[in-house]
Amino acid sequence: MAQHTIRVKVQGVEHEAQVESRLLLVHFLREKLGLTGTHIGCDTTHCGACTVLLDGQPVKSCTVLAVQADGRDVMTVEGLEQNGKLHPVQEGFWQEHGLQCGYCTPGMMMTSYALLKSNPHPDEGEIRQAISGNLCRCTGYVNIVKAVQYAARQEQPV
Amino acid sequence: MIPAAFDYHAPTTLQDALALLQQHRDDAKVLSGGQSLLPLMKLRLGGAGHLVDIGRIPGLEYIKEEGGVLRIGGRTRESALERSDVIRQRYPLLVDTTAVIADPLVRNLATLGGNLAHGDPANDHPAAMLALRAEVVATGPKGARTIPIDKFFVGLFSTALAPDEILTEVRVPQAQPRSGGAYMKLERKVGDFATAATAVQLALGKGGEIASVGIALTNAGPTPVRAVEAERYLTGKQPTDATIAEAARLASSAATPSADRRGTVEYKRAMSRVLTSRALTRAITWAREH
Known about the structure:
The structure holds two protein chains of two kinds. By secondary structure, chain A is of the alpha+beta class. Chain A has five helices and five strands.
């Protein structure tokens, strides 16, 4: 079975590992690096629970090979908090009760973070469009949208 | 779910990629965005002993108008098409199409070339490219050849690409004044394949008549369907409620969809008719305004 040495930056820190060709990025993050904040939901490219940023773009990490991330930058939900202070997106989900069971939350927050990076003041339609690849089975979309709007209202949202 | 074991190659030149394909032929698959291939491999519905990742080969992502042709690099991401100024200003059919492919996260990785080369009649770009009369550039060990889109889709998940060829470019005739297009898709939810969908590209003549028109249907048979009779009927006619309705009826009669959870054959055909009518109306409106 083919093994590859990969170097992947996760929240800016480089990690080197030996991985099998078929190892998925989400398993690399959770099992090799112990970053279990990224969830595995449907495992069929539908639900977006596994969303991480790959070179700044939100992608479904269950549908990316770990070897494809070699030499690239990954950011997971663990990268949002800085020096013990929650990111405005995290604060927004807290303040606006943007989660019920919390399963979709890491993916929702990564997509929202990427949205606010490229569009700091999205309208409701743009928010709903951006998160249309992230499913919330509690159907808590109203509060999720409010959470993103909360983050967008902060002085420096991202 | 984890794919069956395979070997992974990440060539950095097209020549190296082609050499790998030649070496492994039917046991190799090209990995572009991976948004169809990897799910198939995880579900063990398909696979290969070798994946040749073209993601590290420079020069395969571009969108440019040149010599009367819109040239799009094979590995161009759907999200790049969505954001492209030239596409947004001049190719409304492609704007409509990319916006309804899978979801925004998938579109950050999914590529135009992959969408076509996968040969899935449920994908959205095939019908769009049929309506646009595109050409596909296939690069193999002996160089590049051009395949007219009408000859590209040969069967379910099967295209005219040889095992040692890579889809490197898609060519679309450059947008002309008083031309327009539209893609109308009925889907149960974001990310679903089409219950029915119609792509239209047309140009209006001096007297407001339809000078030329391409109409194609998604998920309406084992390969993407070009509605030739409807195109022939409409060419040279003034667009009126009656001619649009008749063209839509002819287009829907070209559909041979399968019954599934998305609906019965009758329902899907009826939706083909409605969506064709709406796509024609939308394309005509654009053409009149541009």
